[in-house]
Q: What sequence folds into this?
């Protein structure tokens, strides 16, 4: 039964309106990894957090922030949609190692080391030359491990990704990408990467973004589920989740911000092209409120058990977050209450 | 017995070395309200938090951050010195209402609306004209009330202070200042202010900064305790605490930053003067590790009971923090764990 499972979408950047939160709630999703920033620096990241605080205040009846795995259970129990924050780039920490713990305390649970381009930490998947993890990158990986901030290599290049897996003392994730065996794209991941990721306990979230799928917007649910099944055969079902990369109801300006940030004078089309510059058409079986349930049913039809399908649509994300968000230091174990919690 | 009480210094900006933390620990102080910033904007405030994270990491055996009243009890139980953060100016929120909740979640528990000068929120005590709480100031007071961030008017002008007391739905504090009846200085507070503050449940922390005391650095312990006793007669002992304003081992450059920030081309001497530009000499009975115990003993000699003296050296601060740090909204009551706490 779909309703019995904990359902998590491991990556979205939709237009966060009340109407959309109601749709998420109706879809049975208990938590969403929401992209907080693409290219925003530390200061601008604070404004994004502030905007979310306002959303939480206005929509307290249907959404809540997720700072720990316990919060996911609470969201589920209360019938709310939990929001957990991630950054698609390392821009929130500027060039300052000390901002890792600061951003983690603020509620940034996941951070990509790169977004397509070279960053201060690693190389993105669209660069010609992949020089691996930088000096600063090694420091940041160690610090992210220490404070319990999850490393996400979805948009990183192959060598950088393999080095991050190797350097990190804790499992990392690729929150939203597909295997290249299903569709050969710069954003998708080789068997080598997926095997290395999972051998160290990592998690792969399958993307529903048409550019990452065979036949794009015409990809059928059966094709998607076959891709999941083949990956499960390769690395085991316990490492697989969903990271839909859904960007619903966003204007083209947002797509341009994602692709161009402030770095390019020329228009960069990312996975699109000059003749195909806009958002791809949505998958008909993942556009509405039944998307995750459709996947669940598709997985059952492909041969997964109810338990396995439940792990894929959220259970594995819960387990991964459970082991990943605990800080490693005495510092953080010393206080048990969050700053804004009640003492009354 | 001094050792049985919970001892809190309600304001310090000392040079935070390990050596100094050890002295604080030896002095029997369980928590210090540490000034995080004077004039730093939002971005620079993050760096100050990061610097403290590094201090907590390096000195985890003797200090810990305070995010809630429960943390104070934990610090006391573990024999550590708890550090709770405050800003002496509203600079950490820039011009953005949304940064109140962001800074609160980061661990900023107390914020002054002004530091000597006019701010975006209110008028400082050194301005010629006090125009009271601004339009932005009213919004910020309401938001600070909502999230449980304490309003501190130590460096504010009289009208602004009275308006803040009136506008705030929750008790506010004057963390470090003395009554003008004891010493008439721009930084000290009239009977009108002190009575209004305490009538609404507020807290006054007595300052040990020589410029705030009768006879400056020659002020005797008996004079200090008489001032406390006279104030207790006026408003009741339950509203009184200590906020020493101790700035130990700081270079003159820090004093100049406090006084001048980035706002003045001319040197501003604050409570000093061109011929007396440096730090005042410390009070001999408050310079070393026995300072708070000396005050406790002085209070007993002045006629306070052990319980009353205990309230003044920390108990009242605990009670005030207890009622002040609880956020008013469902939003914040919804999650019980702090971002960096363990889920294991």
A:
């Amino acid at each position: 039964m779909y309703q019995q499972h904990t359902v998590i979408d491991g990556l979205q950047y939709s237009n966060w309106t009340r109407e959309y939160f109601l749709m998420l709630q109706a879809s049975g999703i208990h938590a969403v990894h929401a992209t907080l920033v693409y290219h925003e620096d530390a200061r601008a990241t604070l404004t994004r957090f502030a905007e979310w605080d306002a959303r939480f205040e206005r929509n307290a009846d249907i959404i809540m922030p997720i700072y720990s795995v316990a919060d996911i259970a609470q969201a589920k129990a209360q019938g709310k949609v939990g929001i957990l924050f991630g950054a698609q780039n390392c821009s929130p920490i500027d060039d300052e190692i000390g901002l890792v713990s600061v951003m983690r305390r603020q509620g940034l649970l996941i951070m990509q080391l790169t977004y397509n381009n070279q960053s201060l930490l690693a190389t993105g998947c669209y660069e010609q030359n992949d020089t691996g993890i930088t000096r600063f990158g090694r420091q940041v990986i160690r610090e992210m491990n220490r404070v319990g901030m999850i490393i996400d290599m979805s948009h990183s290049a192959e060598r950088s990704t393999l080095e991050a897996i190797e350097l990190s003392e804790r499992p990392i994730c690729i929150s939203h990408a597909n295997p290249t065996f299903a569709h050969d794209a710069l954003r998708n991941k080789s068997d080598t990467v997926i095997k290395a990721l999972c051998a160290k306990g990592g998690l792969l979230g399958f993307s529903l973004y048409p550019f990452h799928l065979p036949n794009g917007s015409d990809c059928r649910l059966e094709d998607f589920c076959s891709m999941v099944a083949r990956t499960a055969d390769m690395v085991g079902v316990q490492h697989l989740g969903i990271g839909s990369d859904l960007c619903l109801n966003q204007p083209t300006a947002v797509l341009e911000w994602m692709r161009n940030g402030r770095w390019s004078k020329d228009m960069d089309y990312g996975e699109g092209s000059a003749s195909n510059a806009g958002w791809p058409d949505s998958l008909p079986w993942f556009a509405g409120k039944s998307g995750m349930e459709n996947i669940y049913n598709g997985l059952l039809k492909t041969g997964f058990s109810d338990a396995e399908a439940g792990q894929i649509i959220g259970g594995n994300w819960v387990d991964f977050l459970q082991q990943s968000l605990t800080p490693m230091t005495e510092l953080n174990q010393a206080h048990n209450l969050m700053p804004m919690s009640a003492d009354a």
